[in-house]
Amino acid sequence: MSNVTIAIAGRQYTVACGAGEEAHVEGLGALINGKLAGMGNTSGQSEARLLLYAALLLADELQEANERAKTMEEAQALDYEATAARLEALAGQLENADQHS
């Protein structure tokens, strides 16, 4: 186990992580901090509320990415089916051409 210190909204947090995961956790902290920074003027908001907003923004992005990935997988499946149908048609044409030769 390792400890990593990340800065979020001007505060330092020490987080435990597995050995070798330090850079990954630091990157996640930077991502959260970036979300908070992108929210604009957050003065007067509690720390818990700010972290909630950041979590909601990140969850929304994750959901959108999952939906895009699902749509891409479905499109690939349709493309594979269309390609398989074309190959079967070509194979049939080749068989017919060989039988008539």
From TrEMBL:
Coiled-coil spans in chain: 55-97
This protein's record includes keyword Cell division: yes
Higher taxonomy: Bacteria, Pseudomonadati, Pseudomonadota, Alphaproteobacteria, Sphingomonadales
Keyword line: Cell cycle, Cell division, Coiled coil
GO biological process, alphabetically ordered: cell division
Entry superkingdom: Bacteria
The protein, known as: Cell division protein ZapA
